[in-house]
Amino acid sequence: MKKKSIFLIAATATLYFNNAYAQETPQDSVKVSSIDQIVITGNSNPKKKIESSTAISTFSSKEIQKQNPISAAALLQRVPGFAVETSGGEVGNNLFARGIPSAGAYEFVQVQEDGLPVFEDGALQFANADNFFRVDNSVSRLEALRGGSGSIYANNSPGGLINFITKEGTNDFKGTAKLETSTYGLMRTDLNVGGALVKDKLFFNVGGFYRSDDGIRKTGFKANNGGQIRMNLKYVFDKGYAKVYYKKLDDRNTFFLPIPLTQDGEKLKGFQGFDPNYGTYSYRAISQLNIPQAGGGFFSRNLEDGIHPKVDVLGAEFKYDLGGNFSVLNKTRYTNINMNYTGIFPAGAPKTASDFATKPIDEGGMGMTSYQYSLVSSGAVVDPQFVQKLGFWAIDKQMNNFVNDLQFNYKFDKGNVTAGFYKSNWKSHQYWNWSNILTTATDRPELLNLVDPSLSPSSVGYSKTYNGVTDMSTLLRDSQIQGSLNDLYLNLDYNVTDALSFNGGIRYSRDFYKGYKVNTTTANLNNSGLTVDGTHGFDTTTADDHMNVLGNQFTYWYYDINKVSYTLASNYKINRENAVYARFSHGFRSPNEEAYYNNIGNLDAVKPVQTNQLEVGYKYYSRTFDIAVIPFYSALKNLSFTDVYSDGTSENKFANTTNLGVEIEGFARLFNNVFEITFNGTIQNPKYKDFTGRNADGSTFDYDGNVVRRIPKFYFNISPAVNITKDWRAYVSMNYYGKRFQNEGNTEDNILPSFTEFGAGMSYQLGKIRFAVDGTNIFNTIGITEGDPRSQTVSGTNIRMARPIMGAAARASITLDF
């Protein structure tokens, strides 16, 4: 029925074509002609997109409005070269730039707001950059740069720069108000207003949103709840301007982790008792944790808080014309973040109730000869077919970042020179307290107790659980990392002729990192005087037998980096609409946080990731048709793989990679503006090189020549739209994500199948009011973006742990421009 509806929309659009309407660009047409676009990201000065020797995608506020992305990651899916995993929810998603593998997050790109980082390192443990940023109507445009030139303009960004540029006020007072609802209980309000307090001199802009919803996956509580406000004030004078701004983010988001599926040939299907499109282990019935600690007191956590960052940002920007073609620009920002992170992480796949209870401990069982399950909620004895061990992971992070970017620019007849000094001090302190719980293996899980009925309730080891908890505070971590970055950079743009330009840049990084970890010991509550049920002591349960306790011994570490990054490029403008360019870049990425932590006793094993990248490109931009074709090659050394497993250990491997690929991006407006189509795609072949070594258990591995994990060789997005009338528009989107391997070994039991996700929507412009309906995953595709990096294989069964995209959902909105 849904397929027929889409075809009907397209057919109706064709029949409704009216040439009188089609002679002008429709009001809701959102593509800004690339031939006129000016870009600033990855360039020392603003320049036309066709004259920039970079691979850069741009999205205006109107384009973002049309796409109405459910998250920042969903918007970045439209950028070629970025393989994006969006299945985590609104936040906590992963982005892989040009085939560079990582444990996740935004490790090789820098996410920026107005040219400065959202946070200096976007890949700290459990602190993905998109945790601290939301897309709303205060965003003026997005510029997404791919490739090595990012290393000249920012730190740790050899994969590219993602720059969200916020709106500023103008002489005309104007604003946008939006109200949105959905099929999953969404209520969202967006508001943005801007104007002049003093004409031609003093301007303001204020915007933000508040949102509450139940989540597409059924959690039984408010999955997302919170909002953001952003404001700026800009004073313009004869020789420049001064701007100050503030942002406050206070938002709660549920983070969705892998669920069980069953493998049927090359496809993954739903596991019994689990809806693959709407089910989740993150459910209300298991949302509360309250357990005593070996050092005294209790540790309490509420899953309903999810990922909860409180972010305060205060910044300023100043530009001044010094005369004689010299100018100075200074950007400064202070960011403070307090984040509580709570998530349910499966500890492997479901097991039959019998296997979990009776199998030996070294095979993941409890080693019991007799067993009995009961519900924690009621005490009723039950006999579940499958049970699931889940990690109840709680992480607290306190983070701050002070950054200042000072640059001087000199313009001359043939170009300009920019020289600058970048200084950034940042710190992140984190505390982990992880426990494991036992539940039914269903998408509305219930907590289970497990006891040995052959023993009396007062016997030692009678129970394997404590109110459903199998392992109390089984992992504690208290650690801190600090960075002090001191970078000098120089960039030259030189116009050899009107058509031929040259760009060269160099950045010298003298960066220092240090930190510590608190060593831990183990304890139990047997002699604490506490009871498990008001009567029996903790010697009757094994749940507390391996509790972690923080000690008073600290291990400190220190690491410094002395590196040079550089880039050379040339752009040849064939004519007003055609250009070709070539660029070579050498850059690096500092070791990530987990690499320091895992090798704290031998930091010689940790090295910065070195990158060499070459790209050439052809661009054609006109009023009705754009195309960019960009072949690229990259070679990386010293990549660290730092996935944290469900038992708290880390992968801790190092590899080299190569990648050869091509990015394609385009837009067409046809038949007198009746039909529009946007498209982007990436074809690549990322492979491991010289990746051999020894596993933690002593066995050897040889992954040389294997395909890089989790990254597809081919993926694309295409979105045709029909302007039925000047005011009425309908669209369909298709997102294809190719087959991937979950693990480095490229084993057949860890293949992530390809999938195609469809969306569709319609909008109608009535004067200054826009009505819109947007549907995502309208055919309820089971699309897997990643498996379970914490527990990859389930030998002997067809059960696979993986993280599917969200099920079908629809949103409806009303927007008023005034």
TrEMBL record:
Keyword Nucleus: no
GO molecular function, one term: siderophore uptake transmembrane transporter activity
The TonB-dependent receptor-like beta-barrel domain, residue ranges: 271-774
Membrane topology per record: Multi-pass membrane protein
Domain TonB-dependent receptor plug span(s) in chain numbering: 49-160
Any one of the GO CC terms: cell outer membrane
Keywords: Cell outer membrane, Ion transport, Iron, Iron transport, Membrane, Receptor, Signal, TonB box, Transmembrane, Transmembrane beta strand, Transport
Domain of life: Bacteria
Cell location: Cell outer membrane
Signal peptide positions on this chain: 1-22
Assigned protein family: Belongs to the TonB-dependent receptor family.
Name of the protein described by the UniProt record: TonB-dependent receptor
Naturally occurring in which organism (per UniProt): Chryseobacterium artocarpi
Lineage start: Bacteria, Pseudomonadati, Bacteroidota, Flavobacteriia, Flavobacteriales
